Amino acid sequence: MLSSGALRAHLLAARLAGPVATSREESLRSYRLFAARDPRVLIGLDPEWTWGHRDVVELMAHKCGVSADPGHTSGQDVIDPERTLEALDAFAERIAAVARDRAPVLLGTGHPHRLLGFYVALADALSAAGCNVLTPAHGRCVDITTRFGLRMYNLDYVRGVAFVRKPGRGTGGCEPGAHTHSPLPVRIALAAAAEAGGPLPELVIGDHGWVCGAGQLGFETIGLADTDDPALFVGEAEGLVSVVVPLDDAVRSSYYRPLTRYVLNRACLSQ
Length: 271
Description:
It comes from Streptomyces colonosanans. This is Phosphatase. By secondary structure, this protein is α/β, with parallel strands linked by helices. The protein has one domain (1-271). The protein has ten helices and nine strands. Helix 2 crosses helix 4 (53-64). The longest helix has 21 residues, at 81-101.
């Protein structure tokens, strides 16, 4: 079993925590946009509380370990690995609980090129434990507004994990799909599940809009987030998101494999 100490060393070596690739400028820009309630940064969340720029900075310092000084405006951001480990333990506890209950789950990612393998391993383990891994709205069209205008995507699944793909791309690849922060895919998936009259997820697992969009609709969610994704941490602070793991969400996909082993071991699930 991978120990906490060994995983902590890996987090630092792979730059999943410690000094990460996300710049302080990027993070502060996201905090300012969130305080201004920009939909691009809210990613499906409708905050109940009023969040000023300084409030967001202070929250992210508490949740991630970034600098609490708004005057610190340059350089690389820093994630405290102890906060990552603590959140991973809580993440694993929720995985274990849903596995014990054999409850239906929904998994989706806006980072398929980086995180698909992490979620696929969770989906496989949960399915083996008797959970119904849902795949609603498979193939449904999703129109997402991007900085380049309105773009059409299709909702696809690989081994139970949802993501969006540009039309015309083949299905079933190992790491396909498009990067998106949009909450529209999870809204469409959840609406389709409700319309079909089948089971609804008792837990949604993912990142970006998958977490915020589902949490805003009242579903329990857990996920991963970088220092420039304040919406997930605000959702956690307001009680709409159960667990958020702070880490760099855009390193090599292979660097997340030790996290997969750690979570599944902590959850007492075989991979």
